Amino acid sequence: MDRELELYIHIPFCVKKCNYCDFLSFSSDQKTQEDYVNALLREICYYGPLMKDRVVSTIYIGGGTPSWLAYERMEEILSAIYQNFQIAPDAEVSMECNPGTVTKESLQSYFSAGINRLSIGLQSADNEELRLLGRIHTFEQFVKTYEMARNTGFNNLNVDLISGLPYQNTEKFMDTLHKVIHFQPEHISAYTLIIEKGTPFYDQYKFDAVRQEAGMKTEVLPTEDEAYRIYKMTQLTLKEAGYMQYEISNYAKAGHACRHNIGYWKRTDYLGLGLGASSLIDNVRYTNTTDLFTYINETQNIQMKELEYEDRDKNQKKVLGTGIHADGQLLDRKSQMEEFMFLGLRMNEGISREEFQEAFHTPIEVVYRNVIEELKQEELLEMHAGRIYLTEKGMDLSNYAMAKFLF
Ligand code: SF4
User: Fold this and answer.
1) Domains of the chain: total
2) Residue 64: is the preceding peptide bond cis (ω within 30°)?
3) Ligand 1 center from residue 18 Cα (angstroms)
4) Does the predicted model carry a pTM greater than 0.85?
5) Is there an atom of ligand 1 within 6 Å of 26 CB?
6) Cα–Cα distances in Å, from 21 out to 24, 121, 162, 192, 339?
7) Which residues contact 140 (CB under 8 A, 6 or more apart)?
């Protein structure tokens, strides 16, 4: 039987950089975008034949702002994927887009090219918050984008939100949430703001972020208690509105959980194409170069090469990759088990004992008996019907609970 593969395609271009963003994204001219897409097409053509024994179950085009590319180029990318890979007939094909960067024509083109799930980056329904975040759009532009997407025929829409913004309280975020629920998207992702190094927000709010983390009184960021209240109210409000929480930050109506993300958390093999994209293939983690010039150059004539890495015992090892890769590393058995646990426990349904046994040919209790017992006693973890999952309290303390599974 053909093995499953997920595809991730990275489009690193944005109209302008948002104030909180540390993703690999930047503004660019037309020529750079053209060169980039040509390089991406070469990478797609290179990997297709190497993956001919795999069936692609999900494709996720992320960024950056994929909808900022000329839609004709997106058509070319999708057509190259369909020509070079074996795509499952029921594949989930998602693309991220931002309000203000799509038109009726572009949405129609995405739809005809096979995209069947759109993820719209709204972040907030408050125009003042959007301005603070450095977003290029208003809430009204989101409404227009959303309605155009629905009219085009998209019946699987996600809306991305961020809570914990400067000057935000529970009431303000609930206002955003209610406004979004009113539109009834099939999926809502509600992330919490993290103040990342190297962003304008870091320069502005780093001390407040430290105060927040220490549980102290903050100046403009919500306090730790307020952030917790926002999280709990988000859970409750979305539950009442018919959305099932299936992961720490992700909520969906029945049958609309994102299959691509679930694949990540279940450690399905995935191939990341494009600048800085990472992959997991047969337990080797690869990361593509983040240097645009190197990426474009190396795709001219993709060469196999050995990638050196240091394992957890500080031994020098090698794995076979290509000139596009910045690094690659074969995950040892312990690392695979760690990932299995801390990725799987992000999901509300947790992990399956049987799948652990299948993956590692040993019962989970042999490896993690003490940790499981300890977390059960602390009421952070439960076992039921062959599954192990975090309790509500465990989810609230997920960082603490998951860290216990690291060797
Ligand atoms: S649109 Fe998204 S990827 Fe682009 S700068 Fe803003 S947050 Fe970053």
Assistant:
1) 2
2) yes
3) 5
4) yes
5) no
6) 9, 13, 12, 13, 26
7) none
199 lines ligand 1 (CB under 6 A): no
Cβ of residue 275 lying under 6 Å from some atom of ligand 1? no
Q: Is residue 321 part of a domain?
A: no
Instruction: For residue range 49-84, list pLDDT tens digits in order.
Output: 999 999 999 999 999 999 999 999 999 999 999 999
Q: Tell me whether residue 187 is in a domain.
A: yes
Answer yes or no: do 61 and 198 share one domain.
Answer: yes
**Looking at this protein, which amino acid is placed at residue 290?**
T
Same domain assignment for residues 256 and 359: no
Ligand 1 pocket: which of 23, 61, 122 to mutate (most atoms <8 Å of CB)?
23
Query: Ligand 1: which residue has its CA nearest to atom 6?
Result: 18
Split at pLDDT 50, 70, 90, the class of 164 is very high
CATH at residue 80: 3.20.20.70
Instruction: Decide: 285 in ligand 1 pocket, CB within 6 A.
Output: no
Going from the Cα of 12 to the center of ligand 1, the distance in angstroms, rounded, reads 9
Residue ending a domain, choose from 216, 235, 265: 265
Do the domain assignments include residue 298? no
Q: Which residue is closest in CA terms to ligand 1's atom 8?
A: 21
* Residue range of the domain that includes 367: 348-403
Ligand 1 near 101 CB (within 6 A): no
Decide if 47 contacts 54 (C-beta within 8 A): no
Q: How far does Cα 314 stand from its chain's mean position?
A: 30
Evaluate whether 63 touches 25 at the Cβ level (below 8 Å): yes
Residue 66, amino acid: P
Here the CATH number for the domain that contains residue 380 is 1.10.10.10
> 167 and 25 in one domain?
yes
Dump pLDDT digits (tens) for 255-294: 999 999 999 999 999 999 999 999 999 999 999 999 999 9
Contact 145, 99 (CB under 8 A): yes
The atom of ligand 1 lying closest to the CA of 14 is 4
Q: Are residues 257 and 361 in the same domain?
A: no
CA of 354 to the centre of ligand 1 (A): 39
The distance from CA 37 to its chain's CA centroid, rounded to whole angstroms, is 22
Ligand 1 centroid, distance to 14 Cα (angstroms):
6
Amino acid identity of residue 300, one-letter, is: Q
- The answer to whether position 289 is within a domain reads no
Ligand 1 binding pocket includes 18 (Cβ within 6 Å): yes
